[in-house]
Amino acid sequence: MVAPWNTEAIDSQFKVVTPENIAFNYQVAGPFRRLLAFLLDLFIRLAVVVAFFILLGVLGVGNAFVQAGLGDLMMALGTLAVFFFNWFYMAAFEYWWNGTTPGKRLLNLRVTTDEGEPINLFQSAVRNLFRYVDMWPMVPLPFAWMREQMTADPIVVTFLFALIVPIFNNRFQRIGDLIAGTMVVIEDRSWLMKVAKIEDDRARLLADYIPPNFVAPRSMVKAVATYVERRRYFTTARRREIARHLAEPLLEKFGLPDDTSYDLLLCALYYRTFLSRHSSDGVRDDGQLLPNPEQRSPYENASDKPPVSVS
Amino acid sequence: MKVAQLIEKRRVHWQELENLCAQMSSSRKKSIGARNIARFAALYRAACADLALADSYQLPPNIVDYLHKLVGRAHGQLYRSQRVDWSKVGDILFRQIPREIFNDRCVQLTFWMFWTVFLLTGFMAAHPDRFPNFAAEIVGAEALDMYEQMYADAPSRSGGPTAAGAAFYVEHNTSIGIKCFVVGITVIGGICVLLFNAATLGATFGYMASPSVTPETSQHFFEFVAAHGPFELTAIVLAAGAGLRIGFSLISPYHKEETLLEDEVPAGQESLYDKSRRVAYERIDSLRMGAKRALPVMGASACLFILAAMIEAWISPSILPQAAKQTIAIFCSGLLMVYFIVLGYPRRESRAAR
Question: How much is the ipTM here?
Fold first, then answer.
């Protein structure tokens, strides 16, 4: 069986097919972004522990408890809290917060299954228990004098497994991820960019010279759009250099003079494709799609129109 | 219609969907209201449709990109982690898990390994005339001295039951169990940890029973250990077994039956019988199947660890007479046998289903 993702492009995009029969792309999170999230979570845990120590020790709450005869109960709760913090902090958050922990949420990361679905309790527990293996190999400190001065087990946690295992699969999965069948994706909110404006009148005029029956193929439309949306960052010479590869054969095809500006031609093509009246032939006006219920009176006949018309 | 106009028209809907996503991720679903949820669903479906049509509309790539992310976010809000179905827990705990454990070869393996080593080291440490210094070499002389001092007093006189003790035992023992389980993925590591535990425990028990310890100390020790011993030792065996299950599923993957293709079917008499072959799963898939089978065992082990910790904290150091503690130990062992053998013994219907 060939894994389906092996045939995809190597760009950390992962295609998810939803029950609505739509395929969309998730971007898989790389190790460094995840490391940052992990450190944030670690910091948060540390901060909570320190806050508790301050509360109990410095502010004297602990002494009050002991005087009230609750010292034993407080010790018990403290030990249990440390236990759950150590082993189940991440798992609990990932379960309740739908695959995110505070650190992940700050960095827009989310844990999903291999198929892009939400994780369940079993998966969040497994992928986090196996963090213990990620810390391997645990190396004892090399110097005898260091060992004598430290009281607890003098062990260096190398995190080598956490670094090496993700290299060998396409989705940067840790050991715990592999066992539970999960991955971490980036869930960015990105700004909706507008369609680039073509201020230059000459481009609009030039668009009329493009043969009306010319329909640009998809890949060309993509290239032109990418170019035009970014051209304002380039100098004139750079624009000319980049646009030449696409514009030269097009000029020849359209029978336009050779000294036409390459940049201008691509702008004209962009205008033709996205902005002019000719663009998107055959797409009907679907203004009736999705009437906003907030804007209508509740007693308006809501039943005669389907709420969504999927064209 | 112009593409630019089309996008302008839809942008309102997209941004509304984005706002709803933000609301849903920050507050509980119930507080959003039914109308908004219905609206969210409609907007989500519309965005899906837009994404599907983006190619034929020939939308600019950055907008397609935006739509991918928007649909991804909405998808993540619509399909959320499922709550645990607590009504099934009883069925899983008292019907499925015992049968699983009874049939689990890995648990059987760890069971025999643990008890063989435990009894062997126990026997050797209990006879210092034939195996001099054996216990000291396994456990360490200082540790043995420490144990001897600890149990010089009767358990009821050293402290007594405390909540802090209970919490400590839960934390300490369950951590050991989880580590034992997790390390099992390396098979060798898991077996080593198991055998180490078996040897040290066995040597300690044997040493305490040996004539080199005063009979009083020995009696105090066994009085303390008896009540929680059955649960705790079983829990270690189960945790190690669950870990080994994962490790073995990685080393030797699970197999499945696959029917032969038409041109692969052997000719003549054999073709009547051999119509399938055994094919190994990929290691990743096998790992996942192993984990799925191992986790219930680990869950049972965690339950036992917590029970053992409770007994260890509340009953073992208490002032109850020794006979009561021994009764509890026998009762616990009986419970374990009922759980694993009576509940776990393979039934006719489960065999028929296979």
Answer: 0.75
